[in-house]
Specification:
Length: 512
C-alpha cells in the first residue's frame, strides 16, 4: 500500500498523537490533524476532535515543531510535505505523509474536507481565459488629458473638503511625488515588457505614484519602479494555477455574452498599479476579453481566487467615478488625519457562483422551454461562452453535449443520471461527481481531455472495478477521506509514485 515506516518519524508522530490525546474533550471518537510543512514553516488547520454526538470541536497543537522535524527526516527529498495524523481513544494512531497530496478544508463545514492527490505535477491546470478571444473594440477607453484633468480636480475637491488654505495646493508636486522624466518612463516600460495604457502613462508624467493612498481611495499608487518590480515578482496569491490548490470553482463563468475580463487566476497582461493593505490589488488589463477595453481596471489578489473583478473601463473612468462620489457627498472623512472613505459604488466581489450559473439557465429559459418540451434550448447553450456548469438532471447534461468551450462540470443529483453527453466535450478537463448519483461511471474513461476528477470513495472503488488501469489524470480528488489508511489505499490504487506515499501506524506508550 505504501513504503515502509521510518522509525524516527513514527516516534515523532507518536509524540504528536500523545499530545492530541491528552487535550481531548470528553466523548471524543477520534482526533485529527492535517498539516502542510515546508522550509518556511507549518500550515495546519489545527487539531479537530470528532465527538460521539456527531459534532466536531477545534483543539490546540502544542508541539508544531515536531511536524517540521518530520519533513527533515523524510527521505523523499520533498520541498514540502503533507502530514495527515489521526489518533483514537484506544491509543491507536495512524498517519500518511506525502509530497503529492493536500487537504482542502471546507469553509462551511470545519470538520469536512477533500483531499487532492497530484499525479502529474508537470501538467498545469488549463486557463479558462485562454478560451476567449480578444476585445471586439481594440481601442483604449481612457483619455490621457482627461485623466490628468480629473486627477487635478479630484485633488482640489479633497482640498476643499478639508478646508485647505489658498496656496497649499498649486501643483501636483505639493501633495504627490515628483514625476518621472519621459525617458525614464520609456526605460521602465521596456523593463516591464508592456506599454502602459495611455491614461496611466500620462498620470506618471505628473506624479510618480502616491504612497498615501489618496489618489485611488486608500489603495497606495505604486511608483513606476515598484510597479515594474511587482509585475516581475512572484504572484503569491495566484495559487490556483497549481493542482494542489486548484478547484473547479476557479473556472468562473457567468454564461453571459461578451465578457469583459478573462476568467484567469493571473495573466501577464495584468499590470498592478495600486494595492490595498489586505493583499488585494488594482490592475490595468492589457489583455481583456471580447467585451472589454484595453487599459480597463480590474481587482485581483488574495481575496479574488474566484477570478478578477471588473472595476471600470479605464483609469480615467475610475477617477471620474471617485470624483463624482465626492461631488455627491458620498464619502466619510476624518479631519484630523485628512483621510477619505469614498463610496463610489465600485464592485469588489463577484456575485455568488450559484447566481452566475443560473444566468445561463435563464438564457435557456429552462423551466418554460425545454422542460415543457416547447424547445430544446441547445442553440442558446451552444452559443454561450461556458466554462464551469452545475447540472442537476439528464436534460441539463444533454444540452452540454459537444459544447466547444465547456471546461468543467459539477453534477448535483440524487437521481442517477448518464454522463454520456460529456464524451464529445473536447475541452472538458474537470469533473466533480462527489455529490452525484451516476448510472454509467465508466464513461469518464472516454472523456479525452479529463485531467481532474472528484468523487466519493465508493465511486472510486466502483470505477476501479470497471477499468483495467488508472485513468490518465493529473489530479484526483477524494471527497470523503475518513482515515489515513483509507487515504493511503485510495492513493495507491491510482498508480502514483509508490515511493512518495508513506503510511504509519502505532500505539501510544500507555496503550502498547
Amino acid at each position: 500500500m505504501a513504503s515502509p515506516q521510518n522509525p524516527e518519524i513514527t516516534a515523532l508522530l507518536q509524540r504528536i498523537a500523545h499530545s492530541m490525546a491528552r487535550g481531548a474533550p470528553k466523548g471524543w471518537q477520534r482526533a485529527s490533524i492535517s498539516a502542510h510543512v515546508n522550509r518556511h514553516g507549518t500550515v495546519s488547520r489545527g487539531v479537530v476532535y470528532f465527538l460521539t454526538t456527531g459534532e466536531s470541536r477545534p483543539g490546540s497543537m502544542r508541539t508544531p515543531e515536531y511536524l517540521t522535524r518530520v519533513l527533515g527526516l523524510d527521505d523523499t527529498s520533498a520541498d514540502e510535505l503533507a502530514i495527515e495524523l489521526v489518533v483514537y481513544p484506544d491509543g491507536r494512531f495512524e498517519a500518511v505523509t506525502s509530497r503529492a497530496i493536500v487537504r482542502q478544508p471546507d469553509d462551511d463545514e470545519p470538520g469536512e474536507s477533500t483531499v487532492v492527490y497530484v499525479l502529474r505535477p508537470d501538467v498545469r491546470p488549463p486557463d479558462a481565459g485562454d478560451l476567449q478571444g480578444g476585445p471586439t473594440d481594440p481601442t483604449q477607453a481612457g483619455d490621457p488629458e482627461e485623466a490628468v484633468r480629473l486627477l487635478w480636480t479630484y485633488l482640489r475637491k479633497r482640498a476643499e473638503i478639508f478646508g485647505w488654505k489658498s496656496g497649499r495646493l498649486e501643483r501636483f508636486e505639493d501633495v504627490l511625488p515628483a514625476p518621472r522624466k519621459a525617458e525614464e518612463i520609456e526605460e521602465l516600460e521596456r523593463q516591464l515588457g508592456l506599454r502602459l495604457p495611455d491614461d496611466l502613462r500620462a498620470l506618471y508624467a505628473v506624479a510618480d505614484g502616491d504612497d498615501s493612498g489618496v489618489t485611488f481611495d486608500r489603495h497606495p499608487w505604486l511608483d513606476l519602479g515598484r510597479l515594474v518590480s511587482r509585475h516581475h515578482a512572484d504572484h503569491w496569491w495566484a495559487t490556483g494555477n497549481t493542482w494542489k490548490y486548484h478547484t473547479l470553482d476557479s473556472e468562473r463563468s457567468d454564461g453571459l455574452p461578451n465578457p469583459k475580463v478573462r476568467p484567469s487566476v493571473d495573466r501577464p497582461g495584468w499590470i498592478i498599479f495600486a494595492e490595498s493593505t489586505g493583499g488585494d490589488f488594482l490592475a490595468v488589463d492589457m489583455d481583456p476579453a471580447e467585451g472589454g477595453r484595453l487599459g480597463q481596471v480590474i481587482r485581483v489578489g488574495l481575496h479574488h481566487d474566484e477570478g478578477p473583478v471588473y472595476v471600470a473601463d479605464s483609469v480615467t473612468e475610475l477617477l471620474r467615478l471617485q470624483l463624482a462620489a465626492l461631488e455627491r457627498g458620498d464619502y466619510r472623512c476624518d479631519a484630523a488625519s485628512e483621510e477619505l472613505w469614498i463610496e463610489a459604488g465600485l464592485p469588489t466581489h463577484h456575485a455568488d457562483t450559484a447566481d452566475d450559473v443560473d444566468s445561463l439557465w435563464d438564457v435557456v429559459d429552462t423551466e418554460s422551454d425545454f422542460m415543457d418540451g416547447e424547445a430544446d434550448g441547445s442553440d442558446a447553450v451552444a452559443e454561450a461562452l461556458v466554462h464551469h456548469m452545475y447540472v442537476t438532471c439528464d436534460a441539463e447534461l444533454a444540452l452540454l453535449a459537444g459544447h466547444p468551450t465547456l471546461a468543467a462540470v459539477t453534477v448535483l443529483s440524487d437521481e442517477p443520471l448518464s454522463l454520456s453527453p460529456l464524451q464529445d466535450c473536447r475541452r472538458l478537463y474537470g469533473l466533480d461527481l462527489s455529490q452525484a448519483a451516476v448510472r454509467d461511471l465508466e464513461v469518464v474513461t472516454g472523456i479525452p481531455g479529463l485531467r481532474y476528477l472528484s468523487m466519493r470513495l465508493e465511486q472510486w472503488n466502483e470505477l476501479t472495478e470497471h477499468v483495467d488501469r488508472p485513468i490518465d489524470l493529473a489530479a484526483a480528488v477524494l471527497s470523503d477521506a475518513s482515515s489515513p489508511k483509507t487515504l493511503a489505499s485510495w492513493a495507491a490504487s491510482l498508480g502514483g509514485d509508490a515511493d512518495d506515499l508513506r503510511y504509519y501506524t502505532g500505539r501510544l506508550p500507555q496503550h502498547a
